[in-house]
What we know:
Elements: H1 10-17, E1 21-23, H2 27-37, H3 43-61, E2 67-73, E3 78-84, E4 89-95, H4 102-108, E5 113-114, E6 116-121, E7 128-134, E8 143-147, E9 150-151, H5 155-166, E10 171-175, E11 178-179, H6 181-190, E12 195-198, E13 200-201, E14 204-205, E15 211-212, H7 218-223
Parallel strand pairs: 1-12, 4-5, 4-6, 4-8, 8-10, 9-11, 10-12, 11-13
Antiparallel strand pairs: 2-3, 6-7, 14-15
Amino acid sequence: MINSSNIKNESVRKVVExxxxxxxxxxxxxHKLTLxxxxxxxxxxxxxxxxxxxxxxxYEVSRDLPLHDVExxxxxxxxxxxxxxxxxxxxxxxxxxxxxxxEGLLSLIPVAKIGHIGxxxxxxxxxxxxxxxxxxxxIQQRNVIVTDPMLATGGSSxxxxxxxxxxxxxxxxxxxxxxxxxxxxxxxxxxxxxKIYVAAVDEKLNENAYIVxxxxxxxxxxxxxK
Length: 226
């Protein structure tokens, strides 16, 4: 995790100090993120790198999942082990780019259920528009990880988390790749109980609400569209 003193934005630094923003400075994550930022990196390699980073981040994102004791019998004797409490985990990608982070997380948590929330950004207002929502029936009993590579304005993430809370979810964390200060602060203001996990906090948003320096449109780069 990165030291909060390295964060230039004072408001974002406060979110780190409050324990609600976690920034990964692991060398492997930073190396792979640099390759993803490079405009010469094609869709195939971009997808592979995103899966690898999601896997690496997943260890820390899932670090504080609640556990309970369970009695099992090894080939030698009975013993008490640990299992994830409740109905375990649900992975909720924000369509479409959030899908790119699911494979890496599933390699860690193969029994996780997957829901989908479809949002797109209005090109004029830059505000999110909902077009799809399909969630596991027992979603309110699960520890939810929402995925979206880019946390730009924060509108999509705020709306997705709000939708989940309206359906009874109480344990939600947001996992992104690159974030702008504006998006972090918007999510934290709307949902101060939700922990945010990112690989990098970038400088700002430009006039088109793209993250600077960012990595472009993550959905287009994942799926090879323009």
